[in-house]
Automatic annotation (TrEMBL):
Keywords: Oxidoreductase. Gene3D superfamilies: FAD/NAD(P)-binding domain. This is Cation diffusion facilitator CzcD-associated flavoprotein CzcO. Transmembrane segments: none annotated. One of its GO terms (cellular component) is cytosol. InterPro entries: Auxin_biosynth/cation_transpt, FAD/NAD-bd_sf, Flavin_mOase. SUPFAM superfamilies: FAD/NAD(P)-binding domain. It comes from the Bacteria. Pfam families: Pyr_redox_3. GO terms for molecular function: flavin adenine dinucleotide binding; monooxygenase activity; NADP binding.
Length: 370
């Protein structure tokens, strides 16, 4: 029986395993993919961190300066590989856990090969961007075009000369729409249900992440008002181009929807230039068309659903009381959710995911070893 098992060899799993090592506790890290950082390996090619390098490193090892201020996806993967080597972490890849149940002296993990793995303490660090979610739109099965989740999108090459509809104006959707517009798609439309909050990635060298860190402690009403004012000052009015201003305040959406703003890496320019056309939300499909909420329809060749992810935790555990209605653990980021069971990497903040993971990894390691 293992003393401590960490589930997931992404940034959160590696960070907490390294923190446990620093406290003299060995752990086993189980990873379903072929290597560490599997989820990052599979993201679209042009992706960079939306947080600055200096505030994105994990405990005990900064991200190398040569990776630049805005770290590329592939460089982050290299960093995480080096991190696992630096702390000599016991990462066991190609190991898929299919269920987790309380055991006689801790927790019992059923593996895909039919074997069992027992552990006294389990730290779940599979993240909230785990399982792609595509809405069950009416008529989706009848449609004869190509539908793929954004997790399967890599670059614009396969879509050159095609009409593409991207669904969802979050960070992935907005950046994929820009990538398609720059990469030769015949037309690019962006379906919007709720108007996004859009911020500049940086202004005169000042990153948006710092605004989140400095202003994030303000009361919700004050923050919402300030964020709306800043948005009107730094971003052009996109209403003439089909994107309304948000109605709900940014911090309110963070609290109620786990929402973070869209960092502009080209979408504003492309909307104004007409290279990306905002359209109404998708309400369904028929054999040849995508039906929109305003009564209009489109006939794209391809639909890219940038419609988010679920945690996938409800499929692992048979105790639904551990999670809220979205699948996020009620208790995470430090204290035990059950004796010997910890979750980390499920918080969404304006200060950056990797920075928050670094904070939580220290908390969880302290809780496990106390």
């Amino acid at each position: 029986m293992a003393d401590v098992t960490v589930l997931g060899a992404g940034a959160a799993g590696l960070a907490v395993a390294a923190q446990l090592t620093a406290r003299g506790v060995d752990s086993v890290v189980l990873e379903r993919g072929p290597g560490v950082a599997s989820s990052w390996r599979g993201r679209y090619d042009r992706l960079r961190l939306h947080t600055i390098r200096g505030l994105s490193g994990l405990p005990g090892m900064p991200i190398p300066r040569e990776y630049g201020r805005w770290v590329k996806k592939d460089d982050l993967v290299r960093y995480l590989e080096a991190y696992a080597r630096r702390f000599a972490l016991d990462v066991r890849t190609q190991t898929t856990v299919t269920s987790v149940k309380p055991g006689a002296d801790g927790w019992s993990l059923r593996l895909a090969d039919g074997s069992e793995h027992a552990t006294r303490t389990l730290v779940v660090a599979t993240g909230y961007l785990h399982t792609p979610v595509v809405p069950q739109w009416p008529g989706r099965e009848e449609w004869t075009g190509t539908l793929l989740h954004s997790s399967r999108y890599r670059n614009a090459g396969p879509f050159a000369g095609k009409d593409v509809l991207v669904v969802g104006p979050g960070n992935s959707g907005a950046e994929i729409a820009t990538d398609l517009a720059e990469g030769g798609a015949a037309s690019v439309s962006l379906a919007i249900r709720t108007p996004p909050h859009i911020v500049r990635r940086e202004t005169a060298g000042w990153p948006a992440q710092m605004n989140g860190l400095i202003l994030g402690r303000l009361p919700e009403r004050v923050f919402n008002t300030l964020a709306a004012t800043m948005g009107r000052m730094e971003m052009p009015d996109l209403r003439p181009y089909g994107i309304d201003r948000p109605v709900t305040g940014l911090k309110t959406r963070l609290r109620t929807e786990r929402y973070v703003p869209v960092q502009d890496v080209g979408i504003v320019r492309d909307v104004i230039a007409g290279r990306v056309r905002p359209v109404a939300a998708v309400r369904g499909f028929d054999a040849t068309s995508v039906l929109l909420a305003d009564g209009t329809s489109l006939r794209p060749d391809v639909v890219v659903a940038a419609t988010g992810y679920g945690t996938g935790l409800g499929e692992l555990f048979d105790d639904p009381s551990l999670f809220d209605e979205t699948g996020v653990p009620h208790v995470h980021g430090g204290p035990a959710a059950r004796p010997g069971l910890h979750f980390l990497g499920y918080d969404v903040t304006l200060g950056g995911m990797l920075r928050q993971i670094a904070i939580e990894s220290r908390r969880v390691a302290r809780a496990v070893t106390s």
